[in-house]
Amino acid sequence: MPPTTMSEPWRIVVAKPGLDGHDRGAKVVARALRDAGNEVIYTGLRRSAQQIVDTVRDEDARFLGLSSLSGAHEHLFPKVCELLKQQGLNDVIVFGGGIIPLGDREPLYACGIRAIFGPGTPTSEILEFIEQATQLENTGVGQDSDWYWTSSA
Amino acid sequence: MTFEFLEQAKSGDRRSLARTLSSLENGLVKIEEVLDEIGPVPLPVDGGWQTLAITGAPGVGKSCLLDGLLRSWAQKGLRVAVLAVDPSSPRTGGALLGDRVRMTVVDDRELNELIYLRSVATRKASGSVPVIVEDMTKVLLALGWQRVIIETVGAGQSEVRCAALADRIVVVEGPARGDGIQAEKAGLLELADAVLVNKSDLPGAEIHADEIRESFELGAGNTPPVLLTSAIQGNGITEAAEMLLTLSSSGRSTRARWRERLLAYHERKILESPQLDELLEKLAKGSILLDEALQIIGGEHNE
Questions:
Q1: Pairs across A and B, CB distance < 8 A
Q2: Chain A 107-126, residues with CB within 8 Å of chain B CB atoms
Q3: Neighbour count for residue B257 (Cβ, 10 Å)
Q4: pLDDT tens digits, one per residue of A7-25
Q5: Using the beta-carbon criterion (under 8 Å), do A11 and B100 form an inter-chain contact?
Q6: Full strand arrangement of the beta sheet holding B168-173
């Protein structure tokens, strides 16, 4: 059964920060989000934190998905969150994915990232996260909820 | 009802501009309300154009070429906004908006204050541009963006809807797209105010440009300029950017433009009907006939 058409699709930016050239994961996620009826803006490879934040601003995105497989997530993800807050984009909901060891995740949640999805996460789980994040209050990157998604992978 | 973000958009805040465009797209605010707040659309200077559509088949290089053109224009200090349209899935309503991947100029810290790029999905509209783009264009012009470029969905020979929305139409062509007869066929090329034959680094581009020129010369009216460009090598881009800035209308398509306008507005009325979803549901189930659905939608207009 195709999902029912939403009258107002979510606009979601899917971005690849840094020098990492692997975008298969980002494309799989973008496709799943698209097929669920969302408008997905894909940035392409090797974007700086500033470029990603400019894109979120100009595209009026509700969500930002960051993908990193290079190990630079500890540096790049917090930087993106910081810039989003600086520009007053506090209500944007940020999630991440890629090769991100479990031990690295806590500090990322502390920056306001609301989910980290590792390899093998079913795409349906990402859709559930999107649904829940929009139903809860104050889940934006600069908002004060403590909530984050407990992912299966 | 007034919206706070309209005021902020007026003072130059880009997030608020983006939000204003979304609100129009989602039908939360009417264009008249927006213009009341932010001020009127300025008149064109000396009969020049304010909106330009860039159209052509999928994969001919529209986005890449536009990236180069934007760079030239921004270097001259022009403030240019782009509405880049990509298709929505007719099944799920979702869309992958990928035009940013090729637009590197928006990442240039020196120039990006002068360029605003917004990806737009066609949503329920048919054709290569949704009509809501016209309202978005008005907002951008009213907020001081000097030119608005509409990059259409990759368009086929007969998709001329962009004619309804833009002051000028540029058709992007490429080599290896058929013989001279393709240029003779009626359709999109007839409405072009200029043609850019892109990928001039590949064999066949020059021959194709000649074929198009020849075809134009057989017709009546002004002959639109036909230029060769190579977006990937940067050849011919500066010349094309210069030529496009002062491009005049070929004047061959006034009637066709009005026809497209009429069709576009008629379609918009149907798409904005509050009963549309319900009617589609009923049609899909077979519980009403097409004629009945048309009557219900038509009746509502007359009220």
A1: 88
A2: none
A3: 19
A4: 578 999 999 888 877 888 8
A5: no
A6: B115-121, B80-86, B147-151, B51-56, B168-173, B194-197, B226-228
